[in-house]
């Protein structure tokens, strides 16, 4: 029978069926960060258990780390406690650990692929919803809660219910000025934040094939914002080229064997998906969110929707609340919306290609005078080094952008990088929820090129004409 990529990875990892679609699944890889792991390690200690498979784990601090003045004491007690707990647990349990002062430190979803820890065909978990990012490599990768983190640490397995299969095919060719972020937003704009609920989404079609690994990661990163359990892209030569020679990738004969195996990791022709969606990639335009949900997208050339345009009463109510929170009025052109801050970073858009795209827009220009702060936060120390080798840091700082150290930063208000109440941020992150970037802060999700352009113009602007 023709099967999907998801079916194949699931079957390869099924330890035992427990009936009604539930199975015990073997977990190959486990990424650990400081927010969702302290209680899991406490649980192990309390039960007198050890870690089952030490080589399966890679730990790194990212959410709470300050992106400047790291040598000073952490100003936040809770952050400092979580960071100290990860340090101590790494030592006690002998984890493969990248500490805060290591040049490889960065956002867990950036360093996994960068280190060659993320590989096609594996099951990969992390106590973090954006673990879906790693699906770009054809890994079955998904976020888990803290009690599951403990379960995986102790047993290397999880009891899971199989999700349904969904395929999103992005046809055509992406127009100039549009990026993977616009693809991710266009898909969520079309299917909504519940569009993928109960499903694993395989992204396919010519646009996905043409995207770089960085771009595929951006799209898979936001699978979770579409409600999906995970996102997947079938591995191809681009995937293998990206992984070849990475520190933790297989080497020599093991590499050749791995590639031969990985080539079979794709959905069979004729495999049946429970849900199929097609998005015309040629129609995609640079997008901006106007509301407090990632599905609230409009073309930058468009306007804030009118309440009357929502047929569903619940959606209309939600839109009304969102407009009040966002300080926007119905029908307001998006290019009239002024920004107070710019944040270029997060596990969605902090890889080298993202920084290059932003720098290309910024080069030789200056941040608008009224912008309080514009920050560029590379996803890892290695991305930072690469960007500096290319002179991108100078492009940013010459324009008035701050060049920071790696971490989750202003993606969420868990570290000193926050936006104030009522402040409007052009942000390359993935969530525009109420209070996400600080209490009362207003988030607009955009691509790195669009965020850069907004910072220069001082308001949203169509990067294609900038
Ligand atoms: C802190 C962490 C548990 C959380 C997540 O699971 O996604 C964070 O990374 C986020 O993006 O909101
Ligand atoms: S960058 Fe943002 S979305 Fe990604 S893991 Fe950190 S907090 Fe979560």
Automatic annotation (TrEMBL):
This protein's cofactor list reads: [4Fe-4S] cluster
Oligomeric state and interaction partners are given as: Heterodimer of LeuC and LeuD.
- This chain belongs to the protein called 3-isopropylmalate dehydratase large subunit
Similarity field: Belongs to the aconitase/IPM isomerase family. LeuC type 1 subfamily.
Which organism is this entry from?
Gimibacter soli
Listed under catalytic activity are: (2R,3S)-3-isopropylmalate = (2S)-2-isopropylmalate
A Gene Ontology molecular-function term? Answer: metal ion binding
Residues reported in the UniProt entry to bind [4Fe-4S] cluster = 347, 408, 411
Q: Which UniProt keywords apply?
A: 4Fe-4S, Amino-acid biosynthesis, Branched-chain amino acid biosynthesis, Iron, Iron-sulfur, Leucine biosynthesis, Lyase, Metal-binding
> What does the UniProt record say this protein does?
Catalyzes the isomerization between 2-isopropylmalate and 3-isopropylmalate, via the formation of 2-isopropylmaleate.
- EC number of this enzyme: 4.2.1.33
What top-level branch of life does the organism fall under?
Answer: Bacteria
- What is one process in the GO biological process aspect for this record? L-leucine biosynthetic process
Per the record, the pathway is: Amino-acid biosynthesis; L-leucine biosynthesis; L-leucine from 3-methyl-2-oxobutanoate: step 2/4
**UniProt-listed CDD domains:** IPMI
Q: Which Pfam families match?
A: Aconitase (PF00330)
The residues covered by the Aconitase/3-isopropylmalate dehydratase large subunit alpha/beta/alpha domain are 7-458
Cofactor details (free text): Binds 1 [4Fe-4S] cluster per subunit.
């Amino acid at each position: 029978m023709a099967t999907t990529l998801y079916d194949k990875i699931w079957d390869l990892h099924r330890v035992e069926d427990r009936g009604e679609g539930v199975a015990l699944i073997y977990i190959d890889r486990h990424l650990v960060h400081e927010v969702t792991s302290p209680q899991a390690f406490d649980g192990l200690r309390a039960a007198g258990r050890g870690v089952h498979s030490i080589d399966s784990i890679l730990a790194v601090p990212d959410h709470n780390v300050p992106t400047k003045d790291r040598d000073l004491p952490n100003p936040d007690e809770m952050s400092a406690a979580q960071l100290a707990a990860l340090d101590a647990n790494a030592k006690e349990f002998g984890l493969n650990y990248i500490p805060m002062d290591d040049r490889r430190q960065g956002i867990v979803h950036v360093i996994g692929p960068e280190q060659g820890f993320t590989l096609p065909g594996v099951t990969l978990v992390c106590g973090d919803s954006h673990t879906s990012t790693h699906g770009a490599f054809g890994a079955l990768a998904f976020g888990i809660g803290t009690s599951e983190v403990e379960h995986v640490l102790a047993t290397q397995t999880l009891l899971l219910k199989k999700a349904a299969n969904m395929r999103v095919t992005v046809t055509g060719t992406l127009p100039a000025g549009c990026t993977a972020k616009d693809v991710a937003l266009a898909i969520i704009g079309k299917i909504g934040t519940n569009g993928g609920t109960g499903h694993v989404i395989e992204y396919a079609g010519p646009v996905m094939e043409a995207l770089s690994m960085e771009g595929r990661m951006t799209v898979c990163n936001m699978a979770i914002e579409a409600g999906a359990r995970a996102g997947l892209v079938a591995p191809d030569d681009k995937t293998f080229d990206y992984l070849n020679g990475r520190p933790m990738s297989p080497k020599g004969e093991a590499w050749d064997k791995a590639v031969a195996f990985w080539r079979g990791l794709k959905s069979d022709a004729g495999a049946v998906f429970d849900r199929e969606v097609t998005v015309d990639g040629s129609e995609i335009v640079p997008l901006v969110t106007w509301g407090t949900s990632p599905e609230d997208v409009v073309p930058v050339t468009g306007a804030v929707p009118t309440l009357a345009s929502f047929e569903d009463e619940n959606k209309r109510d939600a839109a009304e609340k969102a407009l009040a929170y966002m300080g926007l009025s119905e029908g307001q052109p998006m290019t009239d919306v002024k920004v107070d801050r710019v944040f270029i970073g997060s596990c969605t858009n902090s890889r080298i290609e993202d920084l290059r795209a932003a720098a290309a827009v910024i080069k030789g220009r200056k941040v608008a005078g009224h912008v309080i702060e514009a920050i560029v936060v590379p996803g890892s120390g290695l991305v930072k080094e690469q960007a500096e080798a290319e002179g991108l840091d100078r492009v940013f700082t010459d324009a008035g952008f701050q060049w920071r150290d790696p971490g989750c930063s202003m993606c969420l208000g868990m570290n000193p990088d926050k936006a104030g109440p009522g402040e409007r941020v052009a942000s390359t992150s993935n969530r525009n929820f109420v209070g996400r970037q600080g209490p009362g802060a207003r988030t607009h999700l955009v691509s790195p090129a669009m965020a850069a352009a907004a910072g220069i113009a001082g308001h949203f602007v169509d990067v294609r004409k900038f």
